[in-house]
Design goal:
The chain is an all-alpha fold. It is built from 13 helices and no strands. 79% of the residues lie in helices and 0% in strands.
Length: 334
C-alpha cells in the first residue's frame, strides 16, 4: 500500500467525520452520513494497521473511530436489568463453562489436602517439624486454638474479615492466571497445605471429627469458590499458551472479561460462606445441624451453576459482555 496515496484519497472523509463529531445537533441526513463515515474509517484503520502501520496516523484514526463509536452507540447506563442478567445468566454461565477446569482442580486439590493430612497425621517427625509439642497440644486439645479460632472475635467482624481475605485470594487467582497460571498453583497449594496441616494434626490426636465439624459448615462453599477461581485462572493462563481458533488478544480479552465478572460473583458466594463461618460455625447448634447447613448451601450453589448456568450456556451466554458493550472489531486485511 502507498500510504501517501491512501491518505490523500481518504483525508477528506476523515476530516468530514471529525467535523460532524464536533457538532452538537445533527440532521437526519448528517447522522446517516456520520454512521457511514464511521464504518469507512474503521475499515481504513484496519487496512493501515495490517498493511502499512504508521504510529501517528494509526493513533489519529483510532481516536477518531473511538469518538465516532461513542457518538453512534451512545452512553449506556447500568440498570437493575444488568444486575439481574449477571446473577441469572452471565455469572452462572461463566462458572458452568469453566467446570472442566475447576472440577478437576477441586478433585486434585482435595486429594492433595488428604494426602498431606495423612502424611502429617502418621509421621511424628513431620509434626515435630511443624511446632513444639506444647504448641501442638495448645492447637489440638479440647478448647484449643483450632476450636476457639472461630469464636475469637465478634461474629460480624469475623465474618467480614474472612470474607475480605477469601475474596482477595479468589480475585488474585482470577487476575494472576494470565501469568500462565503459575501464581494460581502456588495460592492453591498454600490453601491445601493449611487444610492438610489441620487435618493431620487433629487426626493425630483422634479429634478429626471435631475438626471436620468445624470446617465443613462453611468450608464446602468456601473451597468451592476458591476452586472455581483457581480453575478459571488456570483456564485464562492456558488461553495465553493455546488461544485456539481465536487470535491470542481476542481470547485474552474474552476470557479476561469473564474472569473479572466472576470475581464479583464469587465475592457474593464468599460473602455467604463468610456469614456461615462467622455465625453458624461457632454457634451452639449441634454438629449435624451445622454440617447440614453447609451441605445445603453447597448444593444450592451447584444447582444454581448447573441448572441456571447450564441453561444460559446452552443458549449461547459465555459470561462475557453483551456484543453491544464490547469494543468494536473490524475485519483485518490478509
Amino acid at each position: 500500500m502507498d500510504l501517501d496515496v491512501f491518505v490523500s484519497a481518504h483525508r477528506a472523509e476523515w476530516d468530514r467525520l471529525d467535523a460532524l463529531l464536533r457538532r452538537r445537533n445533527l440532521t437526519g441526513t448528517e447522522a446517516d452520513e456520520l454512521v457511514t463515515l464511521y464504518q469507512r474509517t474503521a475499515t481504513h484503520l484496519s487496512l493501515i494497521q495490517s498493511s502499512a502501520p504508521d504510529p501517528q496516523l494509526t493513533g489519529r484514526l483510532s481516536q477518531l473511530v473511538a469518538r465516532a463509536r461513542s457518538a453512534v452507540t451512545g452512553t449506556r447506563r447500568a440498570s437493575w436489568r444488568d444486575v439481574t442478567r449477571f446473577l441469572t445468566r452471565s455469572f452462572p454461565a461463566a462458572v458452568y463453562r469453566s467446570r472442566h477446569w475447576w472440577v478437576p482442580t477441586a478433585l486434585a486439590s482435595t486429594a492433595l489436602a488428604a494426602l498431606l493430612g495423612w502424611w502429617i497425621g502418621t509421621h511424628p517427625e513431620v509434626r515435630s517439624s511443624i511446632a513444639a509439642p506444647d504448641e501442638l497440644h495448645a492447637l489440638t486439645r479440647p478448647g484449643g486454638q483450632y476450636e476457639t479460632y472461630y469464636s475469637s472475635h465478634p461474629a460480624a467482624s469475623f465474618a467480614a474479615q474472612v470474607w475480605t481475605n477469601n475474596a482477595q485470594a479468589a480475585a488474585m487467582c482470577l487476575v494472576l492466571g494470565v501469568f500462565l497460571g503459575l501464581p494460581v498453583l502456588w495460592i492453591l497449594f498454600q490453601n491445601m497445605l493449611n487444610l492438610g496441616v489441620g487435618v493431620g494434626l487433629m487426626s493425630s490426636v483422634g479429634r478429626l471429627d471435631t475438626f471436620l465439624g468445624l470446617v465443613l459448615p462453611h468450608g464446602l462453599l468456601e473451597l468451592t469458590a476458591v476452586f472455581v477461581a483457581a480453575g478459571t485462572g488456570l483456564r485464562l493462563g492456558w488461553s495465553v499458551i493455546d488461544p485456539g481458533p481465536r487470535p491470542r488478544r481476542t481470547a485474552l480479552a474474552e476470557e479476561g472479561r469473564a474472569a473479572l465478572g466472576m470475581a464479583i460473583g464469587l465475592a457474593l458466594v464468599l460473602f455467604v460462606s463468610g456469614a456461615i463461618e462467622g455465625f453458624v460455625t461457632p454457634s451452639d447448634l449441634p454438629t449435624w445441624s451445622r454440617i447440614t447447613i453447609g451441605i445445603t448451601a453447597e448444593l444450592v450453589f451447584l444447582a444454581y451453576v448447573y441448572v441456571l448456568g447450564g441453561r444460559a450456556a446452552r443458549a449461547g451466554d459465555t459470561g462475557d459482555l453483551e456484543a453491544a458493550e464490547r469494543s468494536a472489531t473490524v475485519p483485518t486485511a490478509a
